[in-house]
Amino acid sequence: DSGVTQTPKHLITATGQRVTLRCSPRSGDLSVYWYQQSLDQGLQFLIQYYNGEERAKGNILERFSAQQFPDLHSELNLSSLELGDSALYFCASSPRTHRGEAFFGQGTRLTVV
Amino acid sequence: DQQVKQNSPSLSVQEGRISILNCDYTNSMFDYFLWYKKYPAEGPTFLISISSIKDKNEDGRFTVFLNKSAKHLSLHIVPSQPGDSAVYFCAASGTGNQFYFGTGTSLTVIP
Question: What Cα–Cα distance (Å) separates residue B25 from each residue in A22, A52, A62, B71, B75?
Answer without folding.
Answer: 32, 31, 28, 5, 14
